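User: Design a sequence. Structure:
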């Protein structure tokens, strides 16, 4: 039986929604903790934020004995290398993904795309996704922009059958406080009426999501070479979200 490979994109047209951070956190957790094989196609041209993050991670790991030992112990234990990150562009994304799939046969391929729906190459690449996850926050401008984005994808690609998209999900990100307020219930009622599924798990607004490798060697959260530190994962909902994703994305 042919192995099922899932193409997934955290995608929205609103900057600062956390799509790149989510891509890295989920990819690293799946690859380094859950035992899946992952590849990332960074086609957010020209920033290539994830590819640049990998370069920073590698440089610090090569120059710092603490991280060098961490990497040696981790990869010796896992018996596999860091996941591949390919610098690409919307027009070349699927061709680059095909090459990675033929060489590595991953379980998941994550795509980091520019935040626009006006680029036909972005739309074309989105049409090849199995799942699109759009992060939202309880900010009227962010929510309206993201809902307009998913409605456009749904009307232009999914409804007319012009895409292989199996599911288009919304995800609460940057939630203020540990509990959601009545405001979220109002927004969720709107989302429900539009007919878009919403992940039950939400991610809080926390500084831990920005903790990368540093000379202080403090616990890290966002890295392309290491998973989020177990201490920091507690209370972040990241582990719960990963489990829900694995149950949802088939």
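Assistant: Done.
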């Amino acid at each position: 039986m042919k192995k099922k490979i899932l193409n997934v994109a955290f995608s929205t047209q609103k900057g600062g929604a956390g799509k790149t951070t989510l891509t890295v956190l989920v990819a690293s957790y799946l690859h380094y903790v859950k035992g899946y094989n992952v590849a990332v196609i960074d086609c957010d041209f020209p920033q290539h934020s994830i590819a640049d993050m990998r370069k920073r991670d590698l440089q610090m790991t090569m120059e710092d004995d603490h991280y060098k030992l961490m990497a040696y112990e981790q990869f010796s234990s896992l018996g596999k290398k860091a996941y591949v990150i390919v610098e690409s562009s919307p027009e070349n994304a699927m061709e680059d993904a095909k090459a990675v799939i033929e060489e590595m046969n991953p379980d998941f391929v994550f795509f980091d795309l520019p935040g626009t729906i006006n680029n036909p190459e972005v739309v074309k690449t989105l049409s090849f996704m199995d799942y699109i996850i759009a992060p939202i926050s309880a900010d009227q401008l962010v929510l309206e922009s993201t809902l307009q984005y998913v409605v456009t994808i749904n009307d232009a690609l999914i409804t007319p059958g012009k895409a292989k998209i199996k599911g288009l999900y919304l995800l609460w990100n940057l939630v203020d406080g540990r509990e959601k307020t009545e405001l979220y219930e109002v927004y969720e009622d709107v989302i429900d009426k539009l007919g878009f599924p919403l992940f039950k798990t939400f991610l809080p607004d926390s500084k831990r999501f920005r903790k990368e490798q540093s000379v202080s060697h403090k616990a890290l959260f966002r890295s392309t070479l290491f998973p989020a530190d177990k201490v920091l994962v507690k209370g972040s909902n990241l582990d719960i979200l990963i489990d829900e994703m694995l149950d949802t994305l088939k």
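The chain has a mean pLDDT of 93. The CA atoms of residues 145 and 221 lie 28 Å apart.
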